[in-house]
Specification:
Order of helices and strands: HHHHEEHEHEEHHHHEHEEHHEE
Catalytic activity: ATP + protein L-histidine = ADP + protein N-phospho-L-histidine
Organism: Mesorhizobium erdmanii
Strand order of the largest sheet: 2-1-5-4-3
Enzyme class: transferase
Largest sheet: 5 strands, antiparallel
Keywords: Coiled coil, Kinase, Membrane, Transferase, Transmembrane, Transmembrane helix, Two-component regulatory system
Number of strands: 10
Structural class: alpha+beta
Radius of gyration: 59 Å
Shape: rod-shaped
Number of helices: 13
GO molecular function, one term: protein histidine kinase activity
Amino acid sequence: MKRILQNLARRWSELSLALQFLVAGGFGLLAVMLVVGSWVTSQIRDGVIRNSAATTALYVDSVIAPLLPDLRKNEQLSESVKQALDETLGQGALGKRLVSFKLWRRDGTVLYAKEADLIGRRFGLTANLRSAFQGNVTAQLDTFDEDEDKERALGEPLLEIYNPVREPWSGEVVAVTEFFEVATDFKATLASALLSSWLVVAGTTLAAFLLLSGLVLRASRTIDDQRGALRRQVSELQGLVTQNSALRQRVQRASRRATALNERYLRRIGADLHDGPAQLVALAALRMDSPVFSGDGQWGESRTTEVAMIRKTLEDAMREIRGICTGLVLPQIEAAAATDILRLAVDEHERRTGTSVALTLPRQLPETGPSEKISIYRFVQEGLNNAYRHGRAKDQAVRAGMKNGRLFVEVSDGGPGFDPARVEGLGLAGLRERVESIGGQFETLTGAQGTRLVIRLSVEEQA
């Protein structure tokens, strides 16, 4: 039983507020309608019966009262009075309306009745008789006592009325008339009135239920919409939290890798300086110790040749130093647009290598931040260097544009390709770390037909 109640409670809680109101409110308003309708119809029924009984009693009393003697002095009715009552109650409109008539004395004795065998008999006072002797007109519809089988057997709707008979000069109740009135029309009118009252109560209840249902449905729909929006926001927030956590981990990994890469950069720069300019300078220094410079003036022509060789060696060393510095120092790109940065990187590569690069740009690219600009310049610089060194400078191309709300830059060549897992060098590894650290994507596509490097950056496109 407990499990059943728990299941019902769970299913009830799963219903929407609107359905809960439709069920609970519907049953509640139905119960209220039945209670109010029963009370209203009961009041209407009692009021209509009481008013109709009072009208009929007044009419009967106006007809019967002149025929009755002074009942305080006469405890029995004379034959002439009985005959007058028989004639009055047996004919005319009153005779057709009344199917039974009794005149009661205070002690329960029947002074007169349409059924002659009841005259003179004594019965116990009923509640209606006692109320009538207290001066109240009472009535009841289709309700019969045990000794009223004859009236019940008629099969017609009857209105039983108890009317007090008062003494004209004192107003004291001296007798009670009890009579049954044919109430066919009255019952039909009463039924119509009760039906109308039920319709009014039901209509009012239905209108109130529909109005409340409309308000609750609207409120429930608003709550459901807000709940759905809240769930979406919570879901988005959870996604952002997860994404931020992943980005934080990526930044931490990138920071650790950047430290290692910086060390590798420094070692490579040191190696380049040692193997290039340092060797050339050392060679020039050795030539300075040549006997050409330490002897007398007989080495004039040889000295000139040796000075020319030293000068060429030092010029080669300076050129290599400038090449290394050119790769390390960035041009002024902070204030440049993305398209200008791409053209600058391509022009610098063409000037330095003497090769050509196919550049494809849209009319306008969105504005980017300093980190994105540096990443774009370094990416194009390193990509074209690889295309020149490993791709034999074949079909070098740079392309940029917007796709799916993101800026992409692509560097491609028609070289033999390489294995990214084995050959991706220090420059590309550093670029990958740089791009991923600012939330971008780095992609390497290579094969026998050539190599294609692509980066994608999240930027807001501006008009």
